[in-house]
Design brief:
binds adenosine-5'-diphosphate, binds magnesium ion
């Protein structure tokens, strides 16, 4: 049987990335090489094409396959990093069909740890981690403190706030780091795609769990 949750996650993520591809590309034109929107749209189009097969797998295997597809299709610096995020989340997923909020938090932590290790990066370096880390940290805190009311909108607020905080950072990783101080004053493209993914996925995940 196909996992309805996985289908909705993939459809939402692919639609969000597709409809914001030009915006992501414009952000990458300012401080990179202008391919981030194209890369992400290509990757999520392929994920959407495989949604039936992915959703038919157990959650753990489905997320790992989704991650592999992103590695192969997104390319650039962000493909292996987003691939690692989803593959590590898959490895940390429970055997049950529906993860609990605590499960999701542990999965997110594992995914973020994988991205940090793969990219040799930490928050503050103007990358996708400047959204992913505060989102994972806040999600863990809120779930552990059982602050479940409005969890989805609070996470969206944190993702948005964190995204805009990349504007004033100087890039220390990726192509934008070649610009040094000239990278200041621009939103990081990978942080933007991460915020878009968080926004599209949280609304599907939280009411279900
Ligand atoms: P490329 O830079 O190879 O053209 P993309 O344009 O697809 O790749 O992705 C660029 C984004 O990847 C950056 O905006 C940044 O968020 C993210 N990124 C680059 N290097 C790293 C890294 N070492 N760790 C985390 N994220 C990174
Ligand atoms: Mg690029």
């Amino acid at each position: 049987m196909q996992n309805e949750l996985m289908l909705r996650l993939i459809e939402g993520a692919a639609a969000t990335i597709e409809s914001h591809a030009e915006q992501l590309t414009r952000l990458d034109q300012a401080i990179g090489d202008g391919d981030h929107g194209i890369n992400m749209a290509r990757g999520f189009k392929e994920v959407a094409a495989q949604k039936g097969e992915i959703a038919a797998l157990p959650l753990s295997k489905g997320l790992q396959r989704l991650g592999m597809t992103l590695v192969m299709k997104v390319g650039g610096a962000s493909g292996p990093l987003y691939g690692t995020l989803f593959m590590e989340m898959g490895k940390a997923a429970p055997a049950t069909a529906l993860p609990t909020l605590l499960d999701l938090s542990a999965m997110l932590d594992a995914g973020v740890a994988g991205v940090k290790a793969r990219g040799k990066a930490e928050p503050g370096m103007k990358t996708m981690l400047d959204v992913l880390c505060p989102v994972a940290d806040s999600f863990r805190d809120l779930v552990n403190n059982e602050e479940i009311d409005g969890l989805d909108s609070r996470i969206i607020a944190i993702a948005g706030h964190s995204l805009h905080a990349t504007t004033m950072m100087e890039a220390k990783r990726g192509r934008a780091s070649f610009l040094g101080p000239r990278s200041v004053g621009h939103i990081d493209p990978g942080a933007c795609s991460s915020a878009l993914l968080v926004g599209s996925m949280i609304g599907v995940l939280v009411p279900q769990t």
